[in-house]
Amino acid sequence: MIKKIFLVGNPNVGKSVVFSRLTGVHVISSNYPGTTVEFTKGYLELEGEKKEILDLPGIYSLDPTSPAEKVALSLLEEHPKDEIVVINVVDSTNLERNLLLTLQLIERGYPTIVCLNMCDDAVHRGIHIDIDKLEQCLRTPVVSTCAVTGLGIKLLIKRIKDAIPLPRPKMSEEERWLEVGRIVREVQQLEHRHHSYRELLEDASVRPLSGSIVALLIIYLSFLIVRFIGESIITYITDPLFYNYYKPLLEKLASFLPERGFWFHLLIGNLISGNIDFRQSLGLLTTAPYIEFGMVLPYLFSFYLILNILEDVGYLPRLAILLDNFLHILGLHGYAIIPVLLGFGCNVPGIIATRILESKRERFIASTIISIGVPCVPLQAMIFGMLGRFGGFYVSGVYLVLFSIVLILGLILNKFLAGYSPEFLVEIPPYRFPSLGILIKKLYFRIKGFLIEALPVVMLGVLVVNILLFLKLFDFVTGIFAPIITGIYGLPKESIIALIIGVFRKDVAVGMLAPLELTAKQLFISTTLLAISFPCIATFVVLWKELGFKDLIKATTIMFAISIIIGSLLNFFIFG
Amino acid sequence: MNQISLVQMRPNQKGRVVEILGGYNLQKRLSSMGLLKGKEIKKISHIGLKGPVVVKVGKTILALGYGMAAKVLVETE
Fold first, then answer.
1. Residues B42-51: pLDDT tens digits?
2. Which residues of chain A make contact with B66, given a CB cutoff of 8 A?
3. Minimum CA–CA partner of A427 in chain B
4. Which residues contact A445 (CB under 8 A, 6 or more apart)?
C-alpha cells in the first residue's frame, strides 16, 4: 500500500518542475543546484486516492556527505520501504553521473521509478537513450519526460504502481561506477557534435577575463533594464491610473467627509496645499495604496522579471565562481552571492536561501550582511522615488555606504568569529533557454507572495500610525528619543515615527518621511538608517527561525551599534 | 607521464585523475559528483591566484575551491 511518494534526484535535474506538474502546487524552480532548500508537500490523485508527494532537496548519493543531504535522507528513511515509492528524477543529458544514485536506490530496496527528465534537451545535444534497454538493465520502470512542457507526465503517473522493489546485489562504490559505465555504454548513443555557441559562451563566462567582462555587462544591463521597465510602468500605467481615475474618486469621497474629522484624517489624511497628495497625505486610501502599487510594485515586477531570467538561464553559479575570491574576504564563498541577490528582492527569501551554505558560521555572516547591507526592492523603490529627486549622487551614495558597511562588517566578522568557512564545491549547470510559461508563473507567484505579505501590514501600519497621530500620542515618544534623533543623527524629532514604523515595513517608513520636508542630507541619513537599522518584522522572524535566539541577539546588537556609528559619522563628518 | 594537481594544470589541458588526497569524506563527495580516480578531466579555467578551479568531467562542469583542487592529482601527457 503506497502511502507516500518521494521525488529524489541529483541537484538541478528538475525535481521541482516535475513536482509542480504532478501536484499542481507551484514551487519555485531555477537553473542552479540548491533552489529547493526545504522539502515541499503536495498531493497527487492515484487510483482514486490522494497520495502525499514530497519534493526533496537534491542529493548526489545515499551516503550523505553534506548536512543538506543528511536532512533530505532522514526524511526518506522515516518510512518503511513498502509504504513509499521513489520517483527518481534523472537528468537525461548527464545519465552517467545520475545513475549512481539510481543504482543505490534500487540496491537498498526502494520501490523506484526512473523519470528520465529533460529529454528534449538531450535530443538537442545529440544524446539518444534507449529507454526499453535501460528499463531492462535497471529492472525498474523508466519513463522519459520533459517536465517543462508536461510531456510524459501522464505516463509517469500511470506507471507509479509498477515500481516494485527488486533488490540488486550490494556493490562497492567502485563496482557501482563500473556498472554505471556498462549500462551507459549499452543504452546511450552520442551523435558527434562540434562545440556549439552555447558551450563557447558557457566556457567564456567562467574564464577570468572574458568572464569579468560578461559579468559587468550583465549586471549593468540588468540594472538599466530593471530601472527602465519600472519607470515605464510608473509613467505609463500606474501614475495615470492613480491620478486620472483614482484621485477624482477620492476627491468625491473627501467632499462627503468633514475635513478636520477622524474619518477624513484616517482615510484621506492631510491635504497638501488644499489637494490630495499621494506621497504625503498619509491616508489609508491615499498614500498606503500608492506606496505599494504606485511606487513599489512596478519595480518589484521588473526586478523579479530580470532575476527570474538570470536564474533560469543558469548564469548565477557562474557569477558565483567569479566572485569567490572577493567573498572569501568576508568569510563566505562564491555561492553566497545567490542568497544576497535574492535578498535584494526581499530579505526573507534571501535569508532562507542561506541554507545552501554549509556551515553555521557562513550562514550567520551571510544573514547578518543581508539584513544590514542589502536593501529590499520596496526600500530601494522608495529610495529612488524620494531621494532620486535630489539627484543620482545621493542615491549612489546610499549604495556606497551600504557596500562599505558590508565590506567592513564582513572583514570583522571573518576575523573574530570562531570556526572556518568550508570551500566552494558546486556543479555548474548548462545554459538553458528559459521556458516562458515557467517564467510567467514564477513572476506571478513571487509578486502574489509579496502582496499577500505586504498589503495587510502596510494597511495596519498606516491605520495605527494615523490613530496615534490623531490622538497626539506620538508627542510623548518623540520627546524621549529627541536627544538621539536630533543630537546624533541631525534629524527632526518627528522622524522617530518613521524609524519605528520601519520595524513593520521599510517602504511605509520611507513614505512617513515625505511630509517632514527633510533636506537632502537628512533624507540621505534617514533612508540609510532605515536600511541598516532593525530589520522589518518579517525578516526578524525569519532570522530568529534560521539562526536561533542567541545569534539573533548577536545580529541585532551589531545592527544597533552600526546604525549609531554610521548615523553619527554621516551627520558629523561626511556632511559636516 | 607527469603527475600534477588541478591547480597546476593549464586551462584547456586534459588529463586523467590518478589520486584524490585528503579525507575519505572529500573523496566520497567528489566521486558522487562524478570526479573519481580514472576519469578523464579537462580544466576550463582558474579564477585569480588562489581562486576556484573550473573543470569538466564527463558531462559535468564542477567548480572546486583552491584547496580542494590542489588535492586532486592528475596525469597529463
1. 999 999 888 9
2. 423
3. B62
4. A26, A28
